[in-house]
């Protein structure tokens, strides 16, 4: 059971950030009941009005894949993609240390 | 008292990632006693062997500035900078929603 940390950067079509944000937040609500999901944080870039960052932390990669493949999640993806400029940048990262809240996967 | 969230991306000189990571983790230890610091997570990019991401979450921006201006922190910065390819990318982000661990600043 390997943990999963993702840093996602999405560039939206001009003026579409709030609309995409609403879809992302609604989709993240589906993770509330999934205890393997420690974090799925939707944030706005302070300097670029067309950029959204989503930081994901899961204790189990398989659970993330399962959650992303549900029909409801695929519907959210279908809604968001046309509002983006190109595909999202997705960076998988591995924890090496530092200070983290309880429950975060360690190095 | 405004919260602060940062997504930092550092590109290191070839082969220097572990050395920079050690400096970052040692510097993050100084945040353990600072309760305003909810997270200072040092991670390695899974696909680029020269990239480190540091995700910071502070409940108080002033506390972050104070922590970064101490002589010991400046010494860590002095050690790390020569090992980087250019300056770090720093993205300030504002939380808008999603699932987060307890204690995280909300939207």
From TrEMBL, chains A, B:
Q: Which InterPro entries match?
A: ABM_dom, Dimeric_a/b-barrel
- Where's the ABM domain? 4-93
Q: Where is the signal peptide?
A: none
Matches recorded under Pfam families: ABM
* Protein name per the record: ABM domain-containing protein
Q: Which organism is it from?
A: Gryllotalpicola koreensis
